[in-house]
Amino acid sequence: MGSNYRICMCFTRRFRITEPEPPPDVKEAFRNYSEGGAHMTAENLRRFLAEVQGEAGATVTDAERIVEQILHKRHHIAKFTRHTLTPDDFHYYLYSVDLNSAIGSQVHHDMSAPLSHYFIYTGHNSYLTGNQLSSDCSDVPIIKALKRGVRVIELDIWPNSAKDDVHVLHGRTLTTPVELIKCFKSIKEHAFSTSPYPVIITLEDHLTPDLQAKVAQMLTQTFGKMLFCPESDLKEFPSPEDLKYRIIISTKPPKEYLEAQSFKANCSQQEKDSDDDVWGKELSNLTADQENDDKGDCDKNDHNLDDEDIDNFDNLLPSEPPVYRRLIAIHAGKPKGGLKEALKIEIDKIRRLSLSEQALEKAAEAHGVDVVRFTQKNILRVYPKGTRFNSSNYKPQIGWMHGAQMVAFNMQGYGRALWLMHGMFRSNGACGFVKKPDLLMNRGPHDEVFNPKANLLVKKTLKVKVYMGDGWHLDFKQTHFDLYSPPDFYTRVGIAGVPADETMKKTKKKEDNWTPVWNEEFTFPLTVPELALLRIEVHEYDMSEKDDFAGQTCLPVSELREGIRAVPLCDHKGEKYNSVRLLMRFEFI
Which residue intervals of the chain bear CATH 3.20.20.190? Predict the structure, then answer.
């Protein structure tokens, strides 16, 4: 198979696309485990799986199944006459994404701990199709997010122009709205298409009480018994296992209910305080509480009490909380006062706190240990700063290393930060919940917790060998990378994690080759391997312009399977290519 490239008006160059030979390590492995013979038996393969691939539990039956699948795919007739692998069959097996993946596909974390013990795959403004200012609002990006495994969907809910229905849109922008009921129906249909674990809907509520009642009706009619509605305020979050196939609502409780509670608390003081004093204090508290914990600005549609409200205040003291309020299982809110007060842990109370990416940076700098302690019991949500109009994202590591469960991302964007998010949630069978490492949950004898600023010793070293790559000639046009010759590929390999572990290295470029062979090895010492992600990118060298992108992936180091593995690459949006893959080796020392 070859390709012709035009050099000038009169000449063409022909390049042959050759099947590269297996790397020396693969040839040596075949020689060693076939005992010098020309064929590898199922028992030989089982030994290879146990000793090289780190699959100690592999049985002869497992190996026989692999042999059978390879023979079925490569030799439809031979599968009936032989039950062994040739060197080419063995190389085919190692290069097979389906049979020899770099990470597992099963849920294997303990799913019985409280929700606060997990990183949760979280979307920001989940309804936007594009930028934050003028794109359409739709249920389509919500469906896409759920199919990818996202477990937290954010909806900004506003009155429609007639004030008689509820729309989802990015408030005070030019985004075109979508009906809330349409979003709810799509969530119901697709919530558990890829994961059985709960979906949390965070509502950014800008509604009047009558429309809140309408939302309560929509929720109960759409989701019915799927809704998780605790009978009383939670003192500890339930587990993902307990909440399988459930829908959870999280928002700030309606002001009417909070005001009623505040009024009751103040009644005992009425003997020594005049009515004016009482209402004056309560109104000033209300003003302090109006800070929108998710967006950092004030709700323009919040309705403070006026004289008529005060006259009819008995209406705000129902025998039980309003229906809408009862549907809120995870209470969002920010206590009055500064950051230190916001991170305060209450004995019999749990809540969700939201901080912008800048606020988290400040909190991490001044109160890093307090943030870690807060997230052991409560939920912390981090969201992109308001100036990310193009739906870009931020580095998620700072949130994860401080225990933030909901690091909210614009899933409709793309770029390296989103690749890291995709990588983290390839963990644990891509179910959308990743158990936080013990170091973030442990407490010492004097109540000390993990200090993200501490200088730590190397805990583990990862050795990565990049053997070769293939599949570009199948997924790209002949002239995609270069009009005049085959591509010059190189691979970048590195670590994203705590600052001490972060690094990026690269192979030499291989000129004029659709199937490059690098055979280069890299070593990565890791102080916190539990939070490390292996970054892999392939680029095509361009002398005159910016190098072309040729694929990427990001893999959780904690999930890597040792040995020689096939690594499929994705495009810049995170969608897997049909054929492009690398052959790599992973080893922990």
Answer: 115-253+322-440
> Would you call 124 a catalytic residue per the annotation?
yes
CATH code for the domain defined by 456-588: 2.60.40.150
For residue 523, the 8-state DSSP code is: E
AA letter at 24 = P
Residues 336 and 282: beta-carbon distance below 8 Å: no
User: CATH fold of 24-95, please?
Assistant: Recoverin; domain 1 (1.10.238)
Assess whether 572 carries a catalytic annotation. Answer: no
* Rounded-to-integer distance, Cα 357 and Cα 453, Å: 18
Q: How many angstroms separate the CA atoms of 425 and 121, rounded? A: 7
pLDDT value, residue 302? 41
Catalytic residue among 91, 170, 367, 473: 170
Q: Determine if the pTM surpasses 0.70.
A: yes
- Model confidence pLDDT, tens digit, residues 356-393: 999 999 999 999 999 999 999 999 999 999 999 999 99
Fold category of 115-253+322-440 in CATH:
TIM Barrel (3.20.20)
Give the integer Cα–Cα distance in Å for 470 and 397: 31
Q: Record the tokens describing residue 526, joined without a space.
A: 């890791």
Q: Which of 91, 117, 124, 473 is catalytic?
A: 124
- What are 192's two structure tokens? 């558990």
